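Appendix B. Chain record.
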Amino acid sequence: MKTPKPGTQSTITNSIRTLRHQHNEMTQQDLADRIGVSRQTVNAIEAAKYAPSLEVAFRIARVFDKAIEEVFQFHAP
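Structure tokens predicted for this chain:
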């Protein structure tokens, strides 16, 4: 597997942690239950270690009544 050069890989960041805390201190488990994934998956998405599928991203945005762009931010290299 080829390793990309620094600064050449796009990234996706998110505001899930902030949104959870703004929604009555929602836990990762609460969010996981509402969107149908494991707590570990929510943790990995929140930490930007894993990019969610488009379906999961929309489910997360819907929980917080936000547009997907308000939850996830794409950063090109």
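Further analysis of this model is presented in Appendix C.
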